[in-house]
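Supplementary Methods S3. Complex input for the nicotinamide-adenine-dinucleotide-bound model.
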Amino acid sequence: MKPIRVGIIGMGNIGKHHAAYLMAGKVARCELTAVCSPSPQKLESYKPLRVFGDPEALMSSDEVDAVILATPHYQHTTLGIRALESGLHVMVEKPISAHKADAEKLILAHQARPKQVFGAMFQLRTEPRYLKIQKLIQSGELGEIVRMSWIITDWFRTEAYYASGGWRATWKGEGGGVLLNQCLHNLDTLAWLLGMPSTVRGFCQLGRYHNIEVEDNVTAYFEYPNGATGIFVTSTGEAPGTNRFEIAGTRGRVVLESNQLHFTRNDSCMVQFSREARVGFSKPEVWNVEIPFENAASPHATLMQNFIDAILDGTPLIAPGADGLFSVELANSILYSTLLGTSLDLPMDSGAFEMRLNQLIQESRFEKKVVEIVNDDFTKSFHR
Ligand SMILES: NC(=O)c1ccc[n+]([C@@H]2O[C@H](COP(=O)([O-])OP(=O)(O)OC[C@H]3O[C@@H](n4cnc5c(N)ncnc54)[C@H](O)[C@@H]3O)[C@@H](O)[C@H]2O)c1
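Predicted complex, serialized as structure tokens:
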């Protein structure tokens, strides 16, 4: 069987990372054949691979069967639709689109071509710590979920980071801030583990810590269809910051913090205990369980292997592209709720949000000064 020929469009931080593990042979039955960037200097070192300055030329070149889209967010929709129309399989970087209406368009384009594989790069879904939390939920060990809290304020970013790309942290270039960029992985993990909330109330602070126009400090409140509640707190301006993910169910509580996963198991259901107890101040007995886990060695490569296996063998995708709608909707709705000053019921009105975002773009007076960043190790940001 011939290997799947892959092209990468966008050779910035993550595009280079995808190229490195593909060229190192970490994904079987897959060959990197072409790369694309508007900057010729980013392509030199990839020769003798085929190099392109224009995505259209790559997509119509007959050199690739599949593409990884690693450009700024807005182009995920336009390039994704073009790639699908060109008959290619598509792995799109997160977020699948900058806003929900665009995500719907991209998903529709794939629905018209269901034989092509459309995946999204949500590599946290391959991390054993989240898979173990998923097992606790799905097996019923946690009981019915009653509360979620994720404080993830350790996405610290400097002014130099924001100045490093003209598209970053602008309404026009990115469509949002910490929610749509850094936290998109966490929002996907939440939707994947717990499903979507029915109501969202967001409190975003725009440019609270940085010279940017989008949100960099956020507190959000969620309500789920079964009455469970949740809070999601994030920031790119706080140091040292916290990363504590806690899910409480009627049978116990799981906490992921400081690279440790701890399950406190109620010996009986807390609701039943409360109803049946004859005394006022006792609680269910608990068992304390430390759940061991290793971090995934190469999560992006694992997800790409799954994408290739889906193309060649029909293996189900770990992260289907269509799932990307949920994290975009969470990011958009937290921001939109802030702008409206009220709670939002989900599913939210994608057209109304798109109009509001376009208004923000039109009213923007923000001027970005781009400064090239020096020799930074961007893979340091992969640990969450
Ligand atoms: N899954 C992950 O772990 C992960 C990590 C980082 C970034 N990302 C996502 O990847 C995307 C890119 O992020 P980044 O940090 O690499 O940004 P970046 O600015 O470092 O790189 C983007 C690159 O795209 C290129 N580009 C822009 N328009 C293009 C076009 N039409 N054709 C070809 N190339 C084009 C730019 O020249 C730039 O080199 C974002 O959507 C981001 O959210 C995902």
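The first helix runs from residue 13 to 23. The chain has eleven helices and 15 strands.
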